[in-house]
């Protein structure tokens, strides 16, 4: 039996088409992937991301403990700031990609992928030395409010001004009378917030946002559009584009690795890979012939398999068939060409600048 | 809304077939297009291709997923609908009309009578 978020009844009421996702019963769409995608690009949409996990480090030394587990640097962040980071194994591969929130040096809150939450918690528990992590996943629901009209919508319902909350900053306050962590983050390429609240408040918050955004055309958005929105931005999805076999350097996420911050798990492996040269890179490409690339399709050069597609779609905003995949470094420069094997047929592709979607 | 015309025959793979003389027109059912969502790509065989009943003859794709098309009957492709290749949304808008996919010259006319009628197909959908 799939797990249910506190918004499960709301999804059914809104005619969500429910599917099993990472062991969770989640809406893949309500009215249609394209319509929902478009609403987020032009207005505002709501996502239930309550399946995501939350792990907390609290007490003296919390910052140092968490910082040793992740690639980005919480010491350089301010209180009230979040960082995107890799949680790596000793070989430099991703255990997960996470967003780490710094409430204070003694309180670090880490949002992790649903499919990895249990694994991440065990990993952190096994590798934490002094401050033990606490799995808070059952204590939080999470609603993402995304789109050009998201800020105004959340502000109308909030009990405090939010204009000081810049990108990757967060604050605590009430939205529609529900206590929330109000985080200016997201996974769509649009402005907006991710709101963390107690499970008991989620449904009231969800419907208050939906009602409050009615005049803007606010709609609930399922996992289908969440995937097409993030693909257009070339944001990595764990299990597709990144996993324990790939490093941040290969994934084009060198910017989340802070070399000068002291030791962290995976650092030695990354240094070795940097010294030897990164063998393959995650690129964004578009097809130059008809077809749509999909994950696991082979990437061919001169008839030989040299890589694999990790994500692909027909981008609803860009109206192009685009994909993400690993190729040998020699084929990773903008303009490089190769083929994607679609049902036994080689289809032309070329590496392009990402994000695919630009305003 | 869901619609399964009684003059058509159906398959478990959610294709429909309609006999016109010695050939049949083939498409996907209302259920198939609804389950796929808005279609953005369609790949069909070439005119002249020989298909065997049950064999894959093309795909329809939405933003999210690829769905294979399975030949309801054996025969030779005599026409394809070029319009759905350039505008796959026709399949969503009018699955039994402008969204037709291919026309087949039947290899064995008796096969047609073995397909499900609309009542049987609808009762199969209701069991889902």
What does this structure look like?
- The complex is a heterodimer of chains A (359) and B (128).
- Chain A is α+β, with helices and mostly antiparallel strands.
- Chain A has 3 domains: 136 residues, Gyrase A, domain 2, CATH 3.30.1360.120; 85 residues, Aminomethyltransferase beta-barrel domains (Alpha-Beta Plaits, 2-Layer Sandwich), CATH 3.30.70.1400; 73 residues, Beta Barrel (Elongation Factor Tu (Ef-tu), domain 3), CATH 2.40.30.110.
- Chain A has 8 helices and 19 strands.
- In chain A, the strands form 4 sheets. In chain A, strands 10-11-12-9-3-13 form a 6-stranded mixed sheet, with helices on both faces. Chain A has a 6-stranded antiparallel β-barrel with strand order 14-17-16-15-18-19.
- In chain A, helix 2 crosses helix 7.
- The longest helix of chain A is centred in the middle third of the chain and has 14 residues.
- The mean pLDDT of chain A is 97.
- With 128 residues, chain B is an alpha+beta fold.
- Chain B has a single domain, classed as Beta Barrel (OB fold (Dihydrolipoamide Acetyltransferase, E2P)), CATH 2.40.50.100.
- Chain B has 4 helices and 9 strands, in the order βββαβββββααβα.
- Chain B is globular and about 35 Å long.
- The relative contact order of chain B is 0.25.
- The mean pLDDT of chain B is 95.
- At the A-B interface, helix 2 and helix 7 of A face strand 4 and strand 6 of B.
